[in-house]
Amino acid sequence: MSTQTLTRDIFDVKDLNLWYGEHHALKGINFPIQKKEVTAMIGPSGCGKSTFLKTLNLMNKMIPNVKITGEVNFDGENILNPKTDLVELRKHVGMVFQKGNPFPQSIYDNVAYGPRIHGIKKKTHLDEIVTKALIDVALWDEVKDRLHAPALGLSGGQQQRLCIARALATKPDVLLMDEPTSALDPISTLKIEELILELKEKYTIVIVTHNMQQAARVSDKTAFFLMGELIEVDLTPNIFSMPKDSRTEDYITGRFG
Ligand SMILES: Nc1ncnc2c1ncn2[C@@H]1O[C@H](COP(=O)(O)OP(=O)(O)O)[C@@H](O)[C@H]1O
Ligand SMILES: [Mg+2]
């Protein structure tokens, strides 16, 4: 394997533009994302953070009147190519939403959902995947005696960890998280943040957060978005101590937002 392959960014987004009808929501985004790092996206509401995140696994491709141009290279392949297999892509690029949204099924079936879609049927194999995913999100001890109880009976923080386990069960390379703690209490938030720091040993994580302290605590790199543009992306300590762009400085010092 060449050095170039070893160091290649997992995502390399080039000149990405996205329109919802007439609304130009992402403007000329160039954004390489490195493997096994946590990249945080910050910026005021409506600046395109969720739109950008969803473009990484084409969750927004099916919205009527969406137009996307440019390149979203994932592992060297431009996923905007119409031949992209969306089921396969989402196996590699999992997503966790703002509000834990477990299916109205058992804890076990929620985690087994993805592997079953990908054709895994053997009970011993599913048991192994479910156990491992629940251990990985530090939920196993809390639920091991009630795996067949309804997932909706869990607390908000547990539901969010369950959704992370569901995303991990297909062994993704990348985990996209859209404000995963914004609906959680401080203790559940802390657990998710600790989890993110553990998961980055194995996964690439891209997280949208409205909370700048959270970005500072969990991320290696931080990207600042404003009105559809990526203003700058840099090592997190640099963004918070010496941003290059005055708009980033204005935002992080609370002058707007
Ligand atoms: N499905 C959609 N249809 C039309 N406009 C949308 C849609 N989703 C988002 N938008 C618009 O695109 C812009 C960016 O939204 P979004 O990516 O959700 O921002 P953020 O996550 O930074 O708050 C906003 O102006 C929003 O109203
Ligand atoms: Mg959003």
Automatic annotation (TrEMBL):
SUPFAM superfamilies: P-loop containing nucleoside triphosphate hydrolases (SSF52540). It comes from the Bacteria. One of its GO terms (molecular function) is phosphate transmembrane transporter activity. Residues 11-252 form the ABC transporter domain. It is found in: Cell inner membrane. Coiled coil: none annotated. GO terms for biological process: phosphate ion transmembrane transport. One of its GO terms (cellular component) is plasma membrane. This is Phosphate ABC transporter ATP-binding protein. It comes from Neobacillus citreus. The lineage of its organism: Bacteria, Bacillati, Bacillota, Bacilli, Bacillales.
